[in-house]
Amino acid sequence: MAKTRPGLSAAKPKPGKKDLDMYTIRGTSKIVRVGDCVLMRPSDTGKPPYVARIEKIEADSRNNVKVRVRWYYRPEESLGGRRQFHGAKELFLSDHYDVQSAHTIEGKCIVHSFKNYTKLENVGAEDYYCRFEYKAATGAFTPDRVAVYCKCEMPYNPDDLMVQCEGCKDWYHPACVGVTIEETKKLDHFMCSECSEDDVKRSQNGYHASPVSDTKGTAVMAALRYAILLLVASLIASFAEERAIYLVLMEGEAVAFHSNIQPQQHGRKFDPQSEASKVHVKKLVDSHDQVLQSSLETGSYNKLYSFKHVINGFAVHTTPSQAKKLKHASGVKLVERDRRTKLMTTYTPQVLGLPQLWTQPGGDRNAGEGIVMGFVDTGIDPWHPSFASYGLANPFTSVISNFSGACQAGPQFPAFSCNGKIVSARFFADGAQASAALNATVDILSPFDVVGHGSHVASTAAGNNGVPVVVNNFYYGRASGIAPRARIAVYKAVYPTIGTLADVVAAIDQAVSDGVDILTLSIGPDEPPQDTATFLSVFDIAMLFARRAGIFVVQAAGNQGPGPSTVVSYSPWAVSAAASRTDRRYPASLILGNGLNVTGVGLTAPTIGNGSLLYRLVLAKDALNFNGRFPRTAEYVEECQFPEALDPNVVRGSIVICTFSAGFNNGTSTLTAIIDTARILGFMGFVLVANPNYGDFIAQSIPFSVSGTLLPKVADSKVVSQYYEQQTLRDARGFVRQFNARAAIGDGRVASFGAQSPIVSRFSSRGPDFIDINRNPADVLKPDILAPGHEIWAAWSPRSVLDPILNGYNFALLSGTSMAAPHIAGIAALIKQKYPSWTPSMIASAISTTATKFSNNGDIIMAEGFEVGSLYPSTHFDSGSGFVNPSRAMDPGLVLPSEFEDYISFLCSMPNIDRFAIRAATGVWCGQSFGHPANLNLPSVTISALRGSLTVRRSFKNVAAKSETYVSLAIAPNGTTITLRPPWFTIAPQGTQDLNIEIRATVSTNQFGFGEIVLTGSLNHIVRIPVSIRPV
Question: Is 441 found in the same domain as 488?
């Protein structure tokens, strides 16, 4: 948790509040609104004012006004301190929120994007800029790197003077090229060392510049250039550039789309084993090697991969200066620096109504049969019963038509691991090995899953049906994948130490070649691309071409919610899954001696007596071991991290109250340490309570090997504290004379059902979608769909190195959009099985247009907010089209198809994306655009900036067996009107129908409003199209 601003109390909101639209700063006429940046008075008059962004304004019954703010940090307030490249007006947008009295606001200010700040002609006292987000607890930045300049590779500081090279247009610090600031100001021309060297070569080859009359001036400039050249050469010789991975796209079609490659029979886009494919593969690989050899110095690079099946390019490990040369090499379209990747983490088949679907011919014995699902993740545990091929009533065959995988053997993964259920397994580690020193103990170079995440994801989508879930000798029920008869193809590309996009793109490239039907990516980049549009990164382009090859791609939306524009899945050709809670809970109650039950969290066995026997309740701070030599800090005492800190005679046989304090917030304290302490000292059980000084904390249902419960809410912790203090006798010094408080811990392993659901999980990343690093909104709805992703039981690797608490377990209860994505993938597999001729966009449409926006109690789906336990009505940016409904998705009535050419037209319709950049990324020149990107035929309508009026079109195809008449209804977002033409229509089987959507702005709200278009069919089909519009 972030620190509290000195002198400002972190006031907690109280009941009876009302939201305000604005607030007038005390003593002024200035008005502030939500979203404005303000200066706030510090307690120390010698310090500059704090800078914050207002998130909410509210007043209580006494008209006391408070503001919820998100703090900006100055560089000197960060853990790393101020650096050379930090400007005087630079701020970091932190994850530190507070509720403050509005009278501490001193004035308004403007925090510009870095790009806009550099364009200011006059910088005023109220102008600041921000280019990083900052995690106050860890000191981590997003992005963790930015564009660098000069030979020193330092990020740009707008306060510093720089000189631009006339040749390559790069910028340099005067001191780095041996020129003083005064000399720089007098220069008429400047060329860097590399460009000067090229000048010399051209002169030696007989290429001369046009005559210049001022020969003296030319000689002076030439002399200066060579002086700089010599100086910089000496600098380079003494300065070793740090290597990085670069992803490179080349001219020419990949194998899957080359005109000379004939399609294979039975639906495959191409045959990778054909002679023509092999010839083209060799041609592409040779061209990659030739570009590297002709452009880069020998020994300066290491080629990691050739991408040849879905995109034409390669990954190379080299220095920034060598990568710069590649940008100018013949045949190279795009060079992009690699980014890191991160992982996004029995009951859900019943929640989704899948047993009813499985009652169709074949039942669960046939659900997903013939479909191959690819998983780019951390690998798989082939020994897990969820992936077994033996002992089944309907054994798996070892051959799948139209699929050509391979079983890549290695440590803990023998060749027979591919058993018919697992039909292919490969690993990709060249990027990881180039970027970090891998740990041979945990970073196993084989498809084996030493993390557990990949096994969890694969079993959620396609695990065998009816596998018993037993953890700590307790039976939790039976687990099943959504499509239990689907086959699994594994592409391991993420390791415990590191994950790189180079490995992920190589995995996608191979998956397309192998012929998977569904591709699941419960992983994603840890930041948006720095120098290109989000849609045009090599990673997103690889997904675009996978979609072109007929593969349904589903991606986790991200786990950075609940703030806006936190999605890490950007493109309309990948279905982005948000995560929700189900109606199942695992309550672990603390039963107090006064009869009160305080509900907590934890998959725990009860204390002896199952709640009927009460035990001594001891606060860890009151059990201090005075004989020990150790620091008297919170971590050692109240957080129960070290056995030597506690008196064994006091805590043995007791339920010990541990406190979630500073150590947990900064990551040095763990639940594992509490459990170890409890075992060593013989606790009867433990309770981890919230510390009022740090606020509520996030708790997950985790299996404990000793009795325990987590109380993440301060309010519940205060109930326990009040009872404890009432019952505990202390002397005048505050030391305990007698422990009279008693308690028991109930069974936390027994699930309760019927809670409100679905609810968008707090961590689930939110829209709006955005097109660049500055988070400018895009005309695309993200996330696309909501699916179960909170506390999901699925397979786990018992040899996992990820979490010691889960070590040795075959199953884990995990949360994350990583868990939501395989639910959507499994449903897509069932649809693909039923309708093998459907394109990925038709499957995506069926899933989206049939989703529900209501919870199980009939109300609108709610979403969790910033405060633990807080809820608000969800919008399309929280839940996409709504909560997935598989049975309706199997019979959608209408679908909205889109093809590869439509996505190109969409890109070419975007006014802020350069057409040459589109050509470089896709290999396709812009032809006819849509006129407006909102005309892409998606099952949603999103307009990020509506001025006046706009008409967009949607084209529907009837996939039902009969003709049907549909009546159209529009619910317009605030500040707009919508007219639908035609208002009704009749459509024949396989027929198409266009719908014109005329949208007019009536009020410039400058914020998104939400509505929907509903088409109701005469045969009971209902098609819902979510609408999100920002009138400006």
Answer: yes
CA distances from 572 to 540, 541, 771 (A): 10, 11, 12
Same domain, 525 and 642: no
Q: H-type helices in 943-1027, by residue range?
A: none
Write the pLDDT tens digit of every residue in 499-554.
Answer: 999 999 999 999 999 999 999 999 888 788 888 899 999 999 999 999 999 999 99
Q: Which one-letter amino acid corresponds to residue 995?
A: L
Question: Per the domain annotation, does 9 fall within a domain?
Answer: no
612 and 691 share a domain? yes
Among residues 834, 824, 843, 828, the alpha carbon closest in space to that of 884 is found at 824
What is the number of other CB atoms lying within 10 angstroms of the CB of residue 242?
A: 8
Find the CATH number of the domain harbouring 230: 3.30.40.10
Q: What is the DSSP letter of 419?
A: -
Q: Which of 377, 696, 784, 902 is catalytic?
A: 377
Cα 880 to its chain centre, rounded Å, is 15
Q: Which residues contact 627 (CB under 8 A, 6 or more apart)?
A: none
Q: Does residue 141 sit in the same domain as residue 158?
A: no
Residue 757 vs residues 355, 640, 753, 859, 861: alpha-carbon distances, Å: 19, 35, 10, 10, 7
| Catalytic hit among 453, 790, 876, 1021 | 453
Tens digits of per-residue pLDDT, 168-215? 667 777 777 777 777 776 677 777 776 776 655 555 544 333 333 343
Task: Report d(CA 160, CA 949) in Å as an integer.
Answer: 45
Catalytic residue among 576, 818, 940, 1028: 818
Query: Do residues 368 and 485 lie in contact, with contact meaning Cβ atoms separated by under 8 Å?
Result: yes
Centre a 10 Å sphere on the Cβ of residue 320 and count the other Cβ atoms it contains. 15
Q: Are 582 and 790 in contact (CB under 8 A)?
A: yes
Amino acid at 480: S
Residue ranges making up the domain that contains 1011: 940-1031
Residue 57 contacts by C-beta under 8 Å, 6 or more apart in sequence? 19, 20, 21, 22, 23, 32, 33, 34, 65, 66, 67, 68, 102
CB 62 within 8 A of CB 19: no
The two three-digit tokens of residue 106, written as one number: 């001193």
The parts of the chain modelled with pLDDT lower than 70 are 1-17, 61, 144-160, 168-169, 185-186, 194, 197-241, 259-270, 344-365, 391, 393, 398-399, 628-635
H or E segment to which residue 725 belongs: helix 714-727
Q: Provide the CATH number for the domain around residue 710.
A: 3.50.30.30
pLDDT of 132 reads 86
Do 652 and 690 fall into the same domain? yes
> In the annotation, is 377 catalytic?
yes
Sign of CA dihedral 166, 171, 176, 180: positive
The answer to whether residue 855 is catalytic is: no
Whether residues 836 and 965 fall in one domain: no
Known catalytic residue at 848 = no
The per-residue pLDDT for 400 is: 78
Q: What are residue 676's phi and psi, to 5 degrees?
A: -65, -45
Angle 348-671-800 from CA coordinates, rounded to 5°? 60
| CA atoms of 554 and 574, how far apart (whole Å) | 6
* 263 prior amide bond cis, ω within 30: no
Domain total for the chain?
A: 7
953/938 Cα distance (integer angstroms)? 10
Residue 413 lies inside a defined structural domain of this protein: yes
| Nearest-angstrom CA–CA distance, 68 and 97 | 7
Shared domain for 102 and 40, answered yes or no, is: yes
Please report the beta strands in 781-843, taking only residues with DSSP state E, as ranges in sequence order: 785-788, 792-795, 811-814
CATH number of the domain at 384, please. Answer: 3.40.50.200
Phi, psi of 29 (to 5 degrees): -105, 10
Q: What are phi and psi of 426, to 5 degrees?
A: -135, 160
